[in-house]
Amino acid sequence: MYQYDNYDQAMVDARVDEFRDQVKRRLAGELSEDHFRPLRLKNGLYLQLHAYMLRVAIPYGTLNSRQMRALGDIADKYDRGYGHFTTRQNIQYNWIKLDEAPDLLADLAAVEMHAIQTSGNCIRNTTADHFAGAAADELVDPRPYAELLRQWSTFHPEFDYLPRKFKVAIIGSETDRAAMKLHDIGIQLVKNDAGEIGCRFYVGGGMGRTPMIAPVIADFVPPLQMISYLEAALRVYNRYGRRDNKYKARIKILVHEIGADEYRRQVDAEFAHILTLGLEPPPAELERIKGYFANPGFEADLPDNVDLSDPDFALWVDQNVHAHKQPGYAIVTISLKPAGGIPGDASADQIRLMADLARDFALDELRVTHAQNIVLPHVKKADLYTVWQKLDAAGLANANLDLISDIIACPGLDYCSLANARSIPLAQKISERFADIGRQREIGELKLKISGCINACGHHHAGHIGILGVDRKGTENYQLLFGGSEAADTSLGTIIGPGFNEDGIVDAVEKATDVYLAQREDGERFLDTYRRIGVAPFKEAIYG
Amino acid sequence: MVDLVFADNVLRFRDDDVVSDPAVTVDAFVDAVSGQPNASAVRVEPGDDARALLPHLDRLALVEVNFPAYTDGRGYSAARILREHGYTGELRAVGDVLIDQLSHMRRCGFDAFVPALPISADAAAKAFATWPEVYQKTVDGRTPIWARRHPVA
To answer: Across the interface, do A161 and B73 touch by the CB < 8 Å criterion?
Structure first.
C-alpha cells in the first residue's frame, strides 16, 4: 500500500503545527468559537452532545497493521478504550478533550495518518471499494487513483469553502461495494473496447434529506485527465451551487435544478479551459503511486482448498469469506456486529488484535468497509482456520456478514447533536431479536440501515429495509422504508406507512421477514421479493 | 518574488503603487453605454461572474473580490479564473478575510488583502508560510509536489 515520502509527511506535520496554533489561540480567547468552528471541523473535530468527537481519515479505507495498532492505542490514550468505525471508512472517537486533540493528531502523523478534511464544507476523505486489489471480479485497482485524488484534494485552495461538504467514491469493478452512485461524485473505472482505462463520472448523488441517484455526467475520461475533470466539476459547483439554504446546497440539488445536460455542458466548457493549464500530475506520478499497490507479496502455488470439517468455521467461511483474485488466498471480513452490540464499535484490544492478524496473516493490510466492518484482504486459505480461531477468541467471529444483524447505524441521539432519535439501542434490539444465526441465514442477504434523523448518516434510503428515526411530538418514532439498495442496482427506499415506537418497529421488521419467507421464490433475496410483489402484502401483515 | 509589504492599509505582494481608484460594480464596469467604461478598478461580489471581465482585462488595474462571509468560497474561483486568463493587475481580497484563509487565497492568485479586521504583517507572513509544499498546481507559480517528484531534466 501507499507510503508517505518526505513531502507527504511534511504536509501532515505542518497541519499538526497549524492546528496546535489554532487550538492555542482558541483556548487563549483570541479565536471566537464561530471562527474556530470551521477550522476544527477541517481537522475532523466536532462538538457533540457530551464531548468533542474526532474523526480520523482512513484514505480509501486502507491501512496497515502499524496504523491500526496506533488507532487502538489512541482509543486507550485519548478515549475510553473504544473506537467507532464509520460508514465513510473512517474511525471516530467520541470522548476527546480539546486541549489533547493536537497531541492526538501528532500521534496520527507519526504513523502517516491525519484527520484532514474529515468534516467541513470541503472535499472529504475519498472512499473506495474495500476489496480493491483483492476482489476476483476487479477490472481496475482503484487505489492508485484514489491516492492521486487524496493528494489533489488535500488543502485544495479553491475548494475549501464549497457550498456544502463533498464526497467522492471510486471503484474499479462492476460490483459496486462503495455505494458509488450515492456520492457527490462517483468514479467508476472502466475499460473501453480497445482495453483502455477510463473514468466514468457519476455526479450529483447523495442521501440526506433529498436522496438522489447520480446520473452519468462523463462516460469516459482518460485517467490522465481525471484531476482536470474534477477541477472542472468542482469549479462549476463552487460557483453555482446554492448557498442560500444549507439543505439545498449539495451538488445533487444543482445538478437536479439545472439538469444533468446543462451541468455537463458547463463542466465540459470548464474542462476544455482547464486542460490548457497543465494541472494534471504526469504519467510518471500515477506510475509511482501504482508501484506501491503492485503485488503485496503473494506466494504462488498455494493450496486452494479449505478444510471445512469444523461446522462453525464452515459457516463463517460461507458467510464472511470472499473469493480472491490470487489462487490460494481469500478475503476475510470481520463483522463488528455482534448480537446486542454497537455497530462499528471495537475495543482497543480488538483493534490491536486485528492489527496483529493483518501483520501475521494478511500481508500487513486492513480495510474499513462502509458497512462498518473490517477486512483482512489477503489471507492464505491455509491460514483461515487459525485466523478464525483467533477472531472467535476475541468475540470477532460473528458469521453474519450481509445478514439482517449486519446493521449500519448512525451514532444517533446517544451521541449526535443533530439526531431526533436513538439508533444504537434499536440496532441492538433488532440484532438480539434475530440473534439465531440459523434464522438469519434462512432469511439471507438483508441490508438493514438505521438513521437517527433525516440527514441519513445511517444510509436508511439505501437499506433493503431502512429505518428513519424522527421526533414525533417529543417522543422517538421510527419510520420504515423498503426497497433501497446501494449496490450496482442502486435504488431508494420508500416509506411504507405510519411510524412505530421502538418495540413496534422491531415487530414490524420481523413481520416483514415473515412475509418474505412465505412469498419468496427460488433464489430471491428480500429485496427481490419486495420488488416483485410490491408493498401491499407487507403492509397488510404489518398494519392489518 | 516580491516580499509582503504593508502599505496604505493593504497587505501586498506587489511593489507597484497601491491602486486608489474607486472600484465600480461589475455591471457598471462592463456596460459601455450606461456604465463607467473608463474605470480601472472593479469590485466582484460573490454572485458576479468574473468571466464577464475577461474581455476587459487590459484596462483593469485593480480587482477587488469581496468576501462578505469567509464561508462563501466563490471568490476563490473568481480569482483563479482571472489569473488563468492572464490578469496581472492587483487582485485584492476584501471583507471577512481571516488569517486562516490567507494562504489559500494567495494560492488562488490574490496578491493584496484588506481584512475587515486588521491582521498584522507579522501574523500574515506567518500564515503565508503555513505550507512547506503544495499538492496542486494553481496560479501562484509554486511547484507542486508531483513536479518536485518528477523534475523535468
So the answer is: yes
| C-beta atoms of B133 and A35 within 8 A | no
Provide the shortest C-alpha distance from residue B10 to chain A (in Å): 22
How far apart (Å, rounded) are the C-alpha atoms in residues B81 and A274?
A: 10
Quote the minimal CA–CA distance from B19 to chain A in Å.
25
Could you tell me if A228 lies within 8 Å of chain B, comparing CB atoms?
Answer: no
Q: With CB atoms and an 8 Å threshold, state whether B70 touches A161.
A: yes
Query: Where do the structural domains in chain A lie, given as residue ranges?
Result: 6-109, 142-291, 311-393, 408-543
Same CATH topology for A142-291 and A311-393: the answer is no
Chain B contact present for A161, CB below 8 A: yes
Q: Which residue out of A31, A119, A158 would a mutagenesis test of the B interface target, given it has the greatest number of B Cβ atoms within 10 Å?
A: A158
Q: What gap in Å lies between CA A109 and CA A203, rounded to an integer?
A: 32
Output the pLDDT for position B152: 83
Residues of A in contact with B149 (CB under 8 A): 5, 7, 284-285, 288
Q: Topology of domain A311-393, per CATH?
A: Sulfite Reductase Hemoprotein; domain 2 (3.90.480)
Pick the CATH number of A6-109 from 3.40.50.150, 1.10.1040.10, 3.90.480.20, 3.40.50.720: 3.90.480.20
- Cβ of B90: how many Cβ atoms within 10 Å? 22
In sequence order, the 6+-apart residues with CB closer than 8 A to the CB of A466 are: A448, A449, A450, A451, A459, A460, A480, A481, A482, A484, A493
Percent of chain A with pLDDT over 90: 94
Distant-in-sequence, close-in-space partners of A514: CB < 8 Å, separation ≥ 6: A541
- What CATH code is assigned to A408-543? 3.30.413.10
pLDDT digits (tens, 9 = 90+) for A414-459: 888 899 999 999 999 999 999 999 999 999 999 999 999 999 999 9
Sheet arrangement for strand B24-25: B5-7, B10-12, B112-115, B90-95, B62-67, B41-44, B24-25
The CA-to-CA distance between both ends of chain B, in Å, stands at: 24
Q: How far is A152 from chain B (nearest CA, A)?
A: 6
Which residues contact residue A503 at a Cβ distance below 8 angstroms, ignoring those fewer than 6 apart?
A: A429
CB A461 within 8 A of CB A469: no
**Structural domain A142-291, CATH architecture:** 2-Layer Sandwich (3.30)
Task: Write down the pLDDT at residue A417.
Answer: 86
Nearest beta carbon to residue A157 from set B70, B108, B133 = B108
Torsion over CA: A118, A123, A125, A127 (sign): positive
DSSP line for B61-93? SEEEEEESSTT-THHHHHHHHHHHTT--SEEEE
ipTM: 0.97
A254–chain B nearest CA distance, Å:
15
Cβ count within 10 A of residue A502: 16
CB contact under 8 A, A38 and B71: yes
Whether residue B38 is predicted with pLDDT greater than 90 in this model: the reply is: no
Give the closest of A10, A18, A162 to B133, CB-based.
A10
The answer to pTM > 0.90 is yes
Which one of A18, A35, A238 has the shortest CB-CB distance to B73? A238
